[in-house]
Amino acid sequence: MAKAVRFHETGGPEVLRYETVEVGDPGPGHVRLRHEAVGLNFADTYFRSGLYPVPLPAGMGVEAAGVVEAIGPDVTNVALGDRVTYTGFLNTLGAYSTERLIPAAPLIKLPDAISCETAAGMTMRGLTASYLMRRIHDFKAGDTILLHAAAGGVGLIVSQWAKLLGLTVIGTVSNEAKGEVARAHGCDHIIYYSREDVAKRVRELTNGMGVDVVFDSVGKDTFGASLDSLRRRGLMVCVGTASGPIPPFNPQMLAMKGSLYLTRPALADYIADPVEKDELAGELFGHVAAGRIRIELNQRYALEDAAQAHRDLESRKTTGSSVFVI
């Protein structure tokens, strides 16, 4: 029998249950997938806590990689035995499982050079980095970015990609150990947000100008400093709310701080078009396969230890990517 992590009520990590589940045969447009590795993402905690409401009981997780074991009618994009990866939102919820039924549409075939473990640790983070680097802003060599959570899974990929584009990267981290990790992956300057004034330090590093773009995955705690770190007509990219939602604010503030731009993108809108998804995935896989971007799998867990994995993630003990190994 298959195993899955599910939750019957919202709350802390303790609500996660490791259960036996029955997986049937795939219907039209679906496949049965045997997982080899499952990704752990901060967004998972939003479903568990109720920030992203879903009907209960529900499965957990939106990213995994494995092998196609059965195919339903009308599936043309994958074949039996294909190694695939996926990420998404409601259409892929339930990834914390040994096997599952899933729509075939989100599945992405894996090149031989990329293992299922690596794929599970990079698909959501990597595609996020891909659209941030290739769709959000027309970067030019010499531009400067401020990257919060620079030692996290997305941060490490963005840093490396940014260096491929000739950008200067200022990263924020909580401690020296994470600072060393961020530097090793391309950060030119490190700011320790727990003891330094982020905006003041950014101005010092940019000769008073500010940065061209801020990538802020923290949210409430960093929003003000992020805006104050931007140059005139700079772009604020809100890509997450790890510290909580951003409080309401008057848009006039953007004008007062230099006619700033602000966007709150979601990965789903950048991979909804299959052609664009393939383009973003192809460039990502190409960089990883060639060794230009390294994926750091720094934490591995058993699926039954999902509650501890969530505790580690929320307490910011992790760096790079985390996966459940099946």
Automatic annotation (TrEMBL):
Taxonomically, the superkingdom here is Bacteria
- According to the entry, every stretch annotated as the Enoyl reductase (ER) domain falls at 11-324
Entry-linked PANTHER family? QUINONE OXIDOREDUCTASE PIG3-RELATED, QUINONE OXIDOREDUCTASE-RELATED
What name is this protein filed under? Answer: Quinone oxidoreductase 1
EC class, as a word, reads: oxidoreductase
User: What's a single GO CC term here?
Assistant: cytosol
Which gene carries the instructions for this protein? qorA_4
Keyword Nucleotide-binding appears in the UniProt entry: no
Q: Name one GO molecular function term.
A: mRNA 3'-UTR AU-rich region binding
Enzyme Commission number(s) of this protein? 1.6.5.5
Q: What is the lineage of its organism?
A: Bacteria, Pseudomonadati, Pseudomonadota, Betaproteobacteria, Burkholderiales
Q: Which UniProt keywords apply?
A: NADP, Oxidoreductase
Q: Where are the transmembrane segments?
A: none
Q: Does the keyword NADP apply?
A: yes
